[in-house]
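User: Assemble these into one structure.

Assistant: Restating your components, then the assembled model:
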Amino acid sequence: MSEMKELTLQGLWKNNPALVQLLGLCPLLAVTSTLINGLGLGLATTAVLIGSNATVSLVRNVVPNEIRIPIFVMVIAAFVTIVQLLMNAYTYELYLTLGIFIPLIVTNCAIIGRAEAYASKHPLKESAMDGLMMGLGFTLVLVVLGAMRELLGKGSLFSGAELLLGDWARSLTVQLFVPDSAFLLAILPPGAFLGMGLLIAAKNALNERIERKYAKPAQTQTIQRVRVTTE
Amino acid sequence: MTFKVASSPHQHAMRNTAGLMRLVIYCAVPGIVVQGYFFGWGILVQLILAVLTALVSEGVFLALRKRNFERALGDYSAVLTAILLAISIPPLAPWWIVVLGTFFAIVIVKQLYGGLGNNLFNPAMAAYVMLLISFPVQMTAWAPVQALTQFSVNLADAASVVFTGFTTDGYSLGQLQTNIDGVTLATPLDQVRTDLTLGLTYHESLQNEIFNHGMGIGWAWVNLAYLLGGLVLIKTRAINWHIPGAMLGTLAAIAAVMYATDASIYASPAFHLFSGAAMLGAFFIATDPVSAATSNKGRLVYGAGIGLWVYLIRTFGGYPDAVAFAVLIMNMAVPLIDYYLKPRVYGHWSKRR
C-alpha cells in the first residue's frame, strides 16, 4: 500500500483521532450540539492541522530537540489565530456560536500529537497529507455526532447551515419531525458522552466484523490420533 | 449408610435471584396499592407499559448479545426495574416517557454494561434522572391527590390521558392538576420549596390545602406503606438494615439539626421522612445489591451518603426531590467505599496498633 493510501486509512479509520486515540474530546463533546457546529469546528481544526503539520515538517531539522514542544505550540497557536481571525471575518455568526472553542483548538491534543508523532519525523508532503486525513477523520466524527444529537434533540438536520455556508444554505435545513418536547438529554453534555460511547462501540463492532471477514482461515492441522488404550 | 461430603457454604438460604426479586416486588405491593388509591389508576397503566417494555427490550438485547434469554427473563430483575421506574414517574405522564425510560434503563444502563450484576448504576434511577433532565415538564406534572382534584379519573380516563393526553371527557393533564378552585396543585416538596422562595415560612406553607397537619395528604400514607414493605424485607433478610437505617437516620438527623436552628425555613425531620420518595428510596432503591456497597460498614457509609445528598439537594439544590440523584452519586462512590472498607479476613488483622 502506498504511503498516501496508508495515511488516508490511518486518519479516517484505523487511527481516527476521536474514535481510537480519543484525543480532542473537549471540543468534540462541547460543540457537537448540531451538525453544522460540528462541521465548522471540524474544518477549522483540519485547517490548523494541515498548516501546523506542514510547518513543523519544514522546520523539523532546525528545531533543537529540547525546546521542540514550545516551538510546535507556537506554530499551532499562529495557525489557530489565523483561523480564528478568518472565521471572525467571514463566518461571524458561527464564530460567536463556537465561542471559546476556536481559540481552544490550540490545546487540542490531536494537533500537538500529530506534530510530535508524525510531522517532526516525516517530509512535507506526507506530513500535510497526514494533517489533512487526521483532520478529516476528526471532522467526520464531529459531523456524525452532531447529526445524531441534532436529530434526537430537535428532529432537524443542517439547522444553521447559513452560518457556515452563507445565505443560500438556509434551504438546506431539513426538519425531519417536530418533537412535542425537545429531548434535552441529547443536546446536553451527557448526551454527547453517551453518543460518543455508542459511536466508539459501533466502530469497534464494525472493525471486528471486517477483520473476521478478511482474516485468512486459520490453518487447521489435523492430527491423527492413535488409540493407545484398549479395554 | 452414606457419608455425604459437601463443600461450603453449609448454611444455605435456598433463595435464588428470581425468588429474591419476587419477594421485593411483593413487598412493594402495599405501597403501589396505596399510591393507586391516592393518585388514581394511572400507576396501573404505567406499570403495565413499563413491564412490557422491560421484558421486550431485555429479551431482544439478550438475543442480540447471544445470551440465554429465557433464564435471564425469568429472574424478574427487569420486571423489578420496570416497577421501580413506573412508580417513580408521575402517574399520568405520557406513554412514551415510561417506554423511553424503561428502554434506557434496561438497554443502556444494564445490558450495555454487561447485564445483571455488572451495571455501575441503579438502572431505574439512571433512567429516572435521564427522563427528569430531558423532559422536565412531563416529569414534574404529578397529579395531586384524587380527593382534592376537580375531576375524578377512572381507569379509562387514566389510560386515555397516558396515551392521548386527554381524558375520555376531553380534559387535559393541566386541568386534572387543578383543585376545585382551578388552582394547580403541586407535591408537598414542591409546594414548600416554592413557598419558601416566595418569602413564606415553612409553617405558613403548611397551611396549604395539600397538607394535612404537617404532612402532604396521601404522601405520608404512601411512605408508610413502603416503610411497611421495607420492614418485611428486613425481617425476611432480603436486605440488611444498614442502608435504609443509615440513609433515614442521616436524613432525619440533619433535618432535626437544621429544624432546630431555624424552624421557619427548614422543614421538620418527619416532613422529610414522609414526603417524596424517602421510604421507597431507602428500602427499595438504595438497597439494590448490584450497585450498592457490599460490606456492612460500607453500606452504612453508602446509606449515610445518600441521606446527606437527599437533604442537601432537597433543601439547597435545584430539584424538589433528590433520591435518584443521591443514589447515582453514591453509586459512583461505591468502588471507593468498597476499597477502603473491606471486611477483615478471618485470621488477619491490621499491622497498626
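Chain A has a mean pLDDT of 83.
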